[in-house]
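Handout, section B. The chain below has 132 residues.
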Amino acid sequence: MADAIDKRVQIAVHTEDGRVFFDMTEADNPCFGCGCCCRHFRVSFYQGEVDTQPGGIVPADLTVPVTPFRVAMKGTEHGHGRCVAQQDDGRCGIYEQRPSVCREFPVFMEDGSMNPECVRLRRLYGIAVTDR
């Protein structure tokens, strides 16, 4: 089991409305070359986050409607599909404009261990699970 989270890899950003967003740095980022979450889950979120709405930042042309109030990243709307923003190396092509659902997903837990969902998906997709 890993020790405390290396703050140089995963940075917790506390929002004014009480949510916690996670940013990953370039250093030892386990997401590079993985990106299982970007091709496994439906990435859906409130349509107010798209850039055609006041304050929205997610490029609207990369989304599709799933309900009157929710959109999904293209490619993920049915689940088990690759997000249109995922690059070949697993990195997000719109990292700075990614939706809140992506920002809220921690790769590492507070004790420094990898998120159990990351472990599950890595095993499912045949990607090695390693301790840092």
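Note. The chain is about 15% helix and 15% strand. Compare this with the example in section A.
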